[in-house]
């Protein structure tokens, strides 16, 4: 019990300062888009969890998962830019972090179609939120920076996860997933 309390306290101390700056006025452009995933715990954790989950899957399924996430994100982003909004957006965004953490813990045991669908649903909500948030910013350059940072976070986590697990479940995935609780 004491160990889990220590981990929880360390996580709170580590991530608390960035909560206050979840969406600072970074401006527009590639650098603003690049910084965006690093300045909000929600963005950071969603991308890290995606990479951690993908690292547990076979390479083709990992590629399908990442492609599905990106496709759902982009389509929802475009829909939000056109005025379409998803219901209960804030609640689903908050729940998506818990859901992604759970996928890291148990997703490998779920049918791949279920994991892909859940991941795509969360990506759609994140894409929709960004479609609304980016409003008047320089979209092309901001998105280029955002996707570069997202690729680095997800790809880096994927590589580390593959290195540690060698395709098998590893205690580090449970530790990573516990950060959401």
List keywords for this structure.
181 residues; 8 helices
Brief overview, please?
The protein is an all-alpha fold and 181 residues long.
Distance between the termini: 14 Å
Give the CA-based shape.
globular
Instruction: Write down the Rg.
Output: 16 Å
Quaternary arrangement of the chains shown?
single chain
DSSP summary: helix tally = 8
Largest sheet properties: none
State the helical fraction.
over 70%
What is the tally of beta strands? Answer: 0
Category by helix and strand content: mainly alpha
Series of H and E elements: HHHHHHHH
The domain tally reads 1
Strand content: under 5%
The stretches of 5 or more residues where confidence is low (pLDDT under 50) are 16-24
Please state the average pLDDT score: 77
What does this molecule look like?
With 181 residues, the chain is mainly alpha-helical. It has one domain (27-178). The protein is built from 8 helices and no strands. Helix 2 crosses helix 7 and helix 5 (89-106) runs antiparallel to helix 8 (171-178). The protein is globular and about 40 Å long.
Lay out the secondary structure:
Blueprint: H1 2-19, H2 30-39, H3 41-54, H4 59-81, H5 89-106, H6 112-133, H7 139-165, H8 171-178
Helix pairs in contact: 2-3, 2-7, 3-4, 3-5, 3-7, 4-6, 5-6, 5-8
């Amino acid at each position: 019990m004491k160990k889990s309390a220590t981990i929880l306290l360390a996580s709170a101390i580590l991530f608390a300062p960035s909560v206050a700056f979840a969406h600072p006025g970074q401006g527009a452009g590639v650098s603003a888009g690049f910084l965006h995933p690093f300045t909000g715990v929600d963005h950071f954790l969603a991308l890290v969890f995606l990479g951690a989950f993908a690292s547990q899957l076979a390479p083709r399924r990992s590629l399908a998962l990442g492609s599905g996430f990106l496709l759902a994100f982009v389509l929802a982003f475009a829909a939000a830019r056109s005025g379409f909004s998803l219901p209960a957006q804030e609640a689903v965004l908050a729940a998506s972090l818990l859901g992604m953490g759970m996928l890291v813990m148990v997703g490998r045991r779920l049918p791949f179609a279920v994991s892909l669908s859940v991941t795509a649903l969360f990506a759609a909500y994140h894409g929709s939120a960004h479609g609304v948030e980016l409003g008047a910013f320089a979209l092309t350059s901001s998105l280029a920076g955002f996707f570069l940072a997202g690729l680095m976070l997800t790809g880096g986590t994927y590589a580390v996860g593959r290195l540690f697990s060698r395709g098998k479940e590893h205690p580090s995935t449970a530790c990573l997933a516990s950060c959401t609780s």
